[in-house]
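Re: the request from the purification team.
They wanted to know what the chain is likely to look like in 3D before they choose a buffer screen. I agreed to run a prediction and write the result into the notebook, where they can find it.
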Amino acid sequence: MGSRVVVIGGDAGGMSAAAGLRRRLPDDDEVVVLERGTWASYSACGIPYWVAGDVKAAEDLVARTPEAHRSNGIDLRTGIEATAIDPAARTVTTADGEQIPYDRLLLATGAEPIRPDLPGIDGTGIHGVQSLDDGQALIDALAEGPRRVVVVGSGYIGLEIAEACVVRSFDTTVIERAPTPLPIVEASLGAQIADAMRGRGIQLQAGIAVTGFVLDDGRVVAVETDHGAFPADLVVLGLGVAARSALAEAAGLPLGVKGGVVVDEHQRVRGFDGIWAAGDCVVTKDRVTGDPIHLPLGTHANKQGMVAADSIAADLLGTEPELSFPGVVQTAITKFCSLEISRTGLGEQQAREAGFDPVLASIETTNFAGYMPDPVAMTVIVVADRASRRLLGAQILGAENAALRIDVAATSLAAGMTVDDVVMLDLAYAPPFSSVWSPIQVAARAAVKALAT
């Protein structure tokens, strides 16, 4: 009889690890995955586009079905919820009372939407958007034809759900506590996003805090704020997520930022032999500041699952792990209708709070050579450290083919480049694709000038 690896959670981190383990381990070793839902390996990031109608069915968001995983030799058990972990006995207890022994354990429990303890928040008609089941529930609710939809929060999910609702011609209000939408970007870009939202008919209420929800016979009818009430037939919460770590906490595992499980570079849970964790339930490292952060994204979850699989397999096979997860630079991209937005690294205030002396440079340019037909304007912001001249962050806002250029800045951050280094990068150029200076380099040149003052 071989060893048994138990994985709790069947989405990006869990299933990427399970697949990697199945490839590496001998046939007589078991890889058991416990997934409390009915889906596995799906894209939660695609749910807003399913709600909008761009994606036709939930199945289109599934990278690999449970049946496909099982045919590859993974014992994937859907509809099974893990309720307790005993690190000393090396067992997992399920909701039906079964105790499953393990030799190695991977926690990949993901994240859960933040639902603040506000009056009425559990009323009918108030939706979160985290799982495919959540997406289906929201689609079904919208099919009933609510007159007024209110989205609470304008982060990535809030902005994307607001777009989905306005594209489908719903009367849509967005309530945001910060002065401008998508507060992770600089306020100057947030103001442009606000203009775009209002230009599409969204009633944006910024600088307003939600204090509760008015219910009538258990169903939401209004959102209460510190600036009065806003009528609502349907509410979508877009207030971010926290690590789903109740299992880990009850088992005494170390927790950090936003309740994330603390792991090392090989995804081992610190201080617990035989337990690993990966994905949205863990704390990772910001490569710019070195600080621990919680940053839930499928891109990181897949990589962490791959690293965890390598480490677990090495542990079972008596070898050294070959992979490690170096951390993140907080790169993200989204859009509102035709307006693309991306960012990486630190904003000006974040940089100041991290102890840097930031210099911000903002430039207006076009997505390709201005003499070509129909060039489109874009704004690029870079943040640099005055003492070291190191690039600390970048943000982009523009139309089609603007936002993905953030990857140049993300790579530069990972490499620890200065803005002078960025200026001298050998980047692709031809008039249909770019001006002779890449937009990121134009902004870096502006930062070089700002550092000279």
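For the purification team: The CA atoms of residues 429 and 436 lie 6 Å apart.
Please add any questions underneath this entry.
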